[in-house]
Design goal:
Length: 166
């Protein structure tokens, strides 16, 4: 088992704060595309588990500001699936697909029983939240992949990843 990397821990905290600030000040009704933007970045930079930790921290901060449990659930599964797919395929498009499936489908299905349990919202169908989560995930993951492609083209991505591996 690898020891905890201080740089990865710090970057994870910074990514969580970035997602929280962007989602707080750039607001879309019932959408958090900047969460998915940061999820795509974290899947590549810190991996699936640190990325999930960043998403969890962001979701908890958003819940403390009045959002529902969907902010935590919607932020965790995307970076896990995106990070695992990036490890396997080494492609930013795999991160995109992982984020969209992880958030748009898995999170949307997982949030249904939680919304029913904690808030009493019975929408009758387990797939109810998929049309609400998927557009946000597509938009945010596309912004994340675009940023990653720009960083790769400029050579900054390689230097940043090297710094994290030290």
């Amino acid at each position: 088992m690898k020891p905890l990397s201080t740089r990865k821990l710090v970057l994870t905290a910074m990514l969580a704060c970035l997602a929280f600030v962007l989602n707080t000040f750039v607001w879309f009704p019932a959408m958090a595309p900047f969460q998915h933007f940061v999820n795509a970045l974290s899947a590549v930079f810190v991996g699936p588990w640190y990325g999930a930790a960043a998403g969890f921290l962001t979701g908890v901060m958003r819940m403390l500001c009045g959002r529902d449990i969907g902010s935590v659930v919607g932020a965790v599964f995307g970076p896990i699936l995106g990070g695992l797919m990036y490890r396997k395929f080494k492609s930013f498009w795999a991160v995109f697909v992982g984020e969209v499936i992880g958030t748009g489908v898995v999170s949307a299905i997982v949030v249904y029983p939680l919304m029913k349990l904690f808030y009493g919202l019975d929408v009758q169908q387990w797939y109810y939240y998929i049309p609400f989560y998927t557009p946000s995930a597509v938009m945010g993951a596309a912004m994340g992949v675009a940023t990653l492609l720009i960083l790769k083209r400029s050579g900054v991505l390689h230097r940043m990843k090297d710094m994290l591996e030290r």
